Amino acid sequence: MARWAPERRDTLAAIVATLQGNYPRGRVMVAVDGLTAAGKSTFADDLATSWRAAVSDPAGARETSVLRASVDDFLKPRAARYARGRDSAEGRYHDSYDYSLLRRVLIEPFRMGGSAGFQLRGFDREADRPFQSEWTTAGPDAILIIDGSFLNRPELRGVWNAVIWLEADAAVRDARIAERDGIAPDSPSAGRYRGAGDLYEETKPRDAATFIVDNTDPDHPRLRFEDSC
């Protein structure tokens, strides 16, 4: 007999309900992590939509803001990203993101609460320069959902209140990269992504995830309760 395939909205709602129960008040940071083309940004967008619906009319409760960010908006300049070569897996893993900037303008001020301003974007990839400062504020109850690669790497581990690790079969991820970026599975560029993912997996990010979701079929993502923390 075929196993029940949960609808996407049901999996998202289950995650939201669990996190709301664990963090009913205050500032909460949730990372959506996984290997390249696991579906992180779309899943994070949909998670934010589901969370907003859950708090849209909380009778008698304080207003809760649900905010979105992506680590892809906290890149290092192009010269630094490709200093080891355009197809370097080590460069992809070690040199892609400016974690100091991420902490300074987003993580730390968001965590402080109060009237402290924070920035949801730090670096413009297309222009290869920092974004002009766009300061955002939020009330005492606010949810920040950030997606991207390597968010549970050792230097960021413990920063997030929760981490959602997305999985997808390698063939599915290769097909998504080919469709999205025009990168053939046997190309050096694809090898760069795979090699960086291998380096990341050596740090065992999956073991530290709060939720593990099989996103091979994005219409029916499946929570892996037996593996989740």
The major sheet is characterized as: 6 strands, mixed
The percent range for strand residues is 15-25%
Q: How confident overall, as mean pLDDT? A: 93
Q: Name the CATH homologous superfamily.
A: P-loop containing nucleotide triphosphate hydrolases
Distance linking N and C termini? 28 Å
CATH class: Alpha Beta
Instruction: Give the name of the CATH architecture.
Output: 3-Layer(aba) Sandwich
Question: How many extended strands?
Answer: 10
Work out the helix count: 7
Would you give an account of this structure?
35% of the residues lie in helices and 17% in strands. The chain is of the alpha/beta class. It has one domain (8-223): 3-Layer(aba) Sandwich (Rossmann fold), CATH 3.40.50.300. The strands form 3 sheets. It has a 6-stranded mixed β-sheet, with helices on both faces. A two-stranded antiparallel ribbon has the order 3-6. A two-stranded antiparallel sheet has the order 4-5. The longest helix is centred in the first third of the chain and has 15 residues, at 8-22. It is globular. The two termini are 28 Å apart.
Short synopsis of the structure:
The protein is an alpha/beta fold. Helix content is 35%, strand content 17%. The chain has helices at residues 8-22, 40-54, 78-81, 89-95, 99-112, 170-181, 188-201; strands at 27-34, 65-70, 118-119, 123-124, 129-130, 135-136, 142-147, 162-167, 211-214, 222-223.
Main attributes of the structure:
alpha/beta; Rossmann fold; 6-stranded mixed β-sheet; two-stranded antiparallel sheet; 7 helices; 17% strand
